[in-house]
Amino acid sequence: MEANIFPSSTNFTLPTVSANTTGGTWTRKLVTTAEQQNFAIWYTYYRTRMGLVKSSVSTAFAPLTDKFRMGFISMNPLVDSTNANSGVSASKYLAIGDFTDAYKAVWYSKLYEQVPFESSPAREGLARVGRHYAGKMDGINKNMTPDPVQNSCQQNFTIMTTDGYWN
After folding, report:
1. Whole-model pTM?
2. How far apart are CA 35 and CA 157, in angstroms?
3. Dihedrals φ, ψ of 95, to 5°?
4. Which of 19, 21, 105, 145 could be cross-linked to 95 through a Cys-Cys bond (beta carbons 3.0 to 4.6 Å apart)?
5. How far, in Å, are 36, 147, 148 from residue 98 at the CA level?
6. Within 13 Å of residue 148, how many CA atoms lie on the same side as its CB?
7. Contacts for 34 with CB less than 8 Å, ≥ 6 apart
8. 96: exposed, middle or buried (C-beta count within 10 Å: 0-12, 13-18, 19+)?
9. d(CA 143, CA 26)
10. Please, what is the angle between helix 49-61 and helix 101-112, to 10°?
11. Containing H/E element for 103?
């Protein structure tokens, strides 16, 4: 996609379109400063699915404090994506911890460094989280920390985001 956005104060000589042009008739639209800013924000943060997720998650989690415990794992975190027993890669996993300011910095860094990768195995991803809460550290959970549950009555949640494409 290419976009040419110019301030409304810019003067243009509109090109003539010949009758044999197959691209249709185009009319140049001069945009306001507010429209330019709106487009710039969209282009920077939301034009890709990964950018949308990173922006949305970081905005939603911003008000959370150290009263919460958070962790991070990508949906496809394996060291070798073709080998389920290769273990979880440290670049795609952060053990659950108190959401202190120091931990937040590490957590956000982990979120922002993620890049799209081949597949999104949702069922395996959710199974991995369930096994993690059950204290399992073998198979698809290899290289993860021990059971993160601190109290038998604590609530635990998983938030999974996916592009929804069938791979």
Report:
1. 0.73
2. 39
3. -60, 150
4. 145
5. 40, 15, 11
6. 22
7. none
8. buried
9. 57
10. 170
11. helix 101-112
Q: What is the pLDDT along the chain (167 residues), one digit of tens a residue?
A: 445 555 555 555 555 555 555 667 777 788 899 999 999 988 888 888 888 889 899 999 999 999 999 999 998 899 988 888 899 999 999 999 999 999 999 999 999 999 887 777 888 889 999 999 999 999 899 999 988 888 888 888 888 887 666 65
Distance CA 107, CA 16 (A): 54
Task: Write the single-letter amino acid at 150.
Answer: Q
Query: Residue 144 and residue 54: Cα distance in Å, rounded?
Result: 23
How is residue 49 written in tokens?
């699915």
Nearest to 162 by CA among 126, 109, 113, 112: 126
Length of the chain: 167
> Distance (Å, rounded) from C-alpha 22 to C-alpha 50?
35
**Which residues have C-beta within 8 Å of that of residue 80, sequence separation ≥ 6?**
86
